[in-house]
Design goal:
This protein has 357 residues and is α+β, with helices and mostly antiparallel strands. The chain has two domains: 91 residues, Phosphorylase Kinase, domain 1 (2-Layer Sandwich); 244 residues, Alpha-Beta Complex (Aminoglycoside 3'-phosphotransferase, Chain: A, domain 2), CATH 3.90.1200.10. It is built from 13 helices and nine strands. The strands form three sheets. The chain has a five-stranded antiparallel beta sheet, sandwiched between helices. Strands 6-9 form a two-stranded antiparallel ribbon. Strands 7-8 form a two-stranded antiparallel ribbon. Strand 1 and strand 2 form a beta hairpin. The radius of gyration is 21 Å and the shape is globular.
């Protein structure tokens, strides 16, 4: 991959010269947990677009383009594509603004309306997307297992220094197989796969604007719901979460999508919880990997909330009681110290850099 400054220069020339926007002024818009970067191209007429930099040796634009088309077909507001350079990994897309759901959810009185809109968008994805899910990769047992394997490698061994005994490995494998079976037994729908408050934008014309959808799959009905309602970046009381979930299930029932509802509210809640447990175990591994492999420390502060979800969910189901005890005994006590050590190493590195200057 070219050095970041060279790619930025190449991207700037693409916008200004190749696309005919010589007045464009580029500034950093955001970066995500992948190798993608986003820049805001501001024009003299005060309009703006977003330029995506997706290095071809790390990122494939094909899934992004495909899922953009599919979500647009079913009426979900995703960024409109204005220009594509597949060879160099550049996209010019609609600017959905700077206001994430996360920012607004922290304001008093905003959550109810925002979640109503976000759940309405999931409803479109799940119901109108039923005929399109066959065009997506399957969120099958192999993928679920591969995701779960990130947790013992990156969160436990690398971040916490916790290595499983033979007995603990057996418990881990049995728990994974249980969760995988529970997930693939659910009705399969169109799944965004990362539908949370940092990937939803508040739009003036209503919303949400949906981003970061390129990893969409055909997967469990509970998955996007739990990504939203048991968000790793913001938490709500269990009673409130269950109320939102119950309202969503009622909407599915009223509109004739009973095949997605389960036999009872308890079964629907079980689907939701087990999708969430698989997701949160995966996320523990991903957040730790972002630090240890990619040097992105900001996600470590969200590990505690994510682990809390794991402990809370596992404690609710007798089948996972031993697993909950194991997580609470072996992981919870080590997390605070591991995060402190990571922050200390960053400070030490920054101090050394200052001294060398």
């Amino acid at each position: 991959m070219l050095a970041p400054d060279l790619r930025l220069e190449m991207l700037s020339r693409w916008v200004m010269d190749d696309l005919g926007h010589p007045d464009a002024r580029l500034s950093v818009a955001s970066a995500d947990a992948s190798f993608r970067r986003y820049f805001r191209a501001q024009f003299q007429d005060s309009s703006s677009l977003i330029v995506m930099d997706a290095p071809p040796d790390h990122e494939n634009l094909g899934p992004y383009l495909q899922v953009t088309q599919l979500l647009t077909e079913i009426g979900v507001h995703v960024p409109q594509i204005h220009a594509v350079d597949r060879l160099r990994g550049f996209l010019l897309i609609e600017d959905l603004g700077v206001t994430q759901y996360l920012e607004q959810l922290r304001l008093p009185g905003r959550a109810s309306k925002l979640y109503d809109s976000a759940l309405a968008s999931i409803y479109q994805i799940q119901t109108r997307g039923l005929m399109l899910k066959s065009e997506l990769l399957s969120y099958d047992a192999a993928v679920l297992q591969r995701e779960l394997s990130l947790m013992p490698e990156w969160f436990c061994a690398r971040h916490l220094g916790v290595h499983f005994t033979a007995e603990e490995s057996q418990l881990w494998e049995a728990s994974c197989q249980f969760l995988i079976a529970e997930c693939i037994a659910q009705p399969m729908v169109f799944v965004h796969r990362d539908y949370h408050s940092r990937n939803l934008m508040v739009l003036t014309a209503g919303g949400p604007g949906v981003i970061d959808f390129q990893d969409a799959v055909a997967g469990p009905v509970g998955y996007d719901l739990v990504s939203l309602l048991k968000d790793c970046y913001i938490a709500w009381p269990r009673l409130q979460v269950e109320q939102w979930l119950s309202q969503y299930r009622s909407q599915l029932q009223r509109t004739g999508f009973t095949q997605l509802c389960g036999n009872s509210e308890l079964e629907f809640l079980r689907w939701f919880d087990f999708s969430g447990l698989q997701r949160h175990l995966k996320v523990l591994g991903i957040f730790a990997r972002l630090w240890w492999r990619d040097g992105k420390i900001s996600y470590l502060k969200d590990l505690q909330q994510t682990l809390d979800y794991v402990l809370d969910t596992a404690a609710r189901y007798p089948e996972l009681r031993d697993f909950q005890i194991f997580c609470k005994r072996r992981m919870l006590p080590s997390l605070g110290a591991a995060n402190v050590m990571a922050r200390t190493s960053v400070i030490a590195t920054e101090d050394q850099s200052v001294q060398r200057r």
